[in-house]
Amino acid sequence: MSEQSREKLLEVRDIHVVFGKGRKRFEAIRGVSFDIYQGETFGLVGESGSGKTTIGRAIIRINPVSQGEILYRGEKISGRIRPETQRKVIRNIQMIFQDPMASLNERAKVDYIVSEGLYNIKGFSTEEERREKVRKAMLDVGLPPEFASRFPHEFSGGQRQRIGIARTLIMNPELVIADEPISALDVSIRAQVLNLLMSLQQQYGLTYLFIAHDLSIMRFITNRLGVIYKGQIVELGDTETIFRHPLHPYTKALISAIPQPDPLTERDRVTTPYDPSVHHYGQEQPQLTEVEPGHSVLASREELEAWRKALQ
């Protein structure tokens, strides 16, 4: 399906996010733009500190945007917005956090943790309706409903992350921001949580913004991918296109670092570290430009010509 025929759910337009003032001022996000289409999984990948989580938190209004705008279904949701728009954001955009240990209130029972969003938006009319919604959310993530009477410390990391997913799911959102949802889990249960997220997407027609630093996971779960380096998107396109024809040196470096399951292949694998000095921008600022349909890269005019030739 072409991008023109798909419905844009979220539009991020040239956003900047700044922390601190004066000499302590730090621009974490520098002019990031991308669209997320209904029903897809869009990925943001990059090293720790590249700005992935900052973008996710800007979308759900935890981090204020200093420049640019974010649109949800064509309506601006960044900056000053009306109270009814704020409620729409809370109801329709939810986040799964990275650390299942830190994101749950240790003093509250699971029943309250999963219901907290419903309390905030008055999303139930009777106590019986609320309990039924909790029960269904627990079953949807593969947890027995009777676990609702327990406290978070009684669960494993994987179970706690499922509780976090149930807390998101009960709000019946359209867009779910999954911020490294499996990086804090044991390797043995990562696939279970990934499969659960994909199953829920099919069941509920969810749209995901999936944030991770592991490209091998991104290839498995995402439809389109944005590669981010120091607060800028350096490459953007269909996931398979980027894996087959990586153009930006940073993307090539990330792909070269993916471990191989075959020991012999892994032994011969050569990683390519990224050296920013390979770019000679001078006075010209690089622009994110389309080099082939659905595939854009941050480049100067000279780099753009060379990379377009490489694709021919």
Give an overview of the whole structure.
The chain has a single domain (3-276, 284-311), classed as Rossmann fold. Helix content is 36%, strand content 24%. The protein is built from eleven helices and twelve strands. The chain is globular and about 65 Å long. The protein starts with 7 loop residues before the first strand and ends with a helix. The mean pLDDT is 91.
Order of helices and strands: EEEHEEHEHHHEHEHEEHHHEEH
CATH topology: Rossmann fold
User: How many structural domains are formed by the residues?
Assistant: 1
Task: Pick out the low-confidence regions.
Answer: none
**How far from one another are the termini?**
24 Å
Q: Label the CATH architecture.
A: 3-Layer(aba) Sandwich
Chart the SSEs and their pairings:
Layout: E1 8-19, E2 26-37, E3 41-45, H1 52-59, E4 67-72, E5 75-76, H2 83-92, E6 93-96, H3 110-121, H4 127-140, H5 157-169, E7 175-179, H6 187-204, E8 207-212, H7 215-221, E9 224-229, E10 232-238, H8 239-244, H9 249-256, H10 263-268, E11 287-292, E12 295-299, H11 301-311
Parallel strand pairs: 3-8, 3-9, 6-7, 7-8
Antiparallel strand pairs: 1-2, 1-4, 4-5, 9-10, 10-12, 11-12
Give a short summary of the structure.
This protein has eleven helices and twelve strands.
Key features?
single chain; 312 residues; alpha/beta; Rossmann fold; 8-stranded mixed β-sheet; 4-stranded antiparallel β-sheet
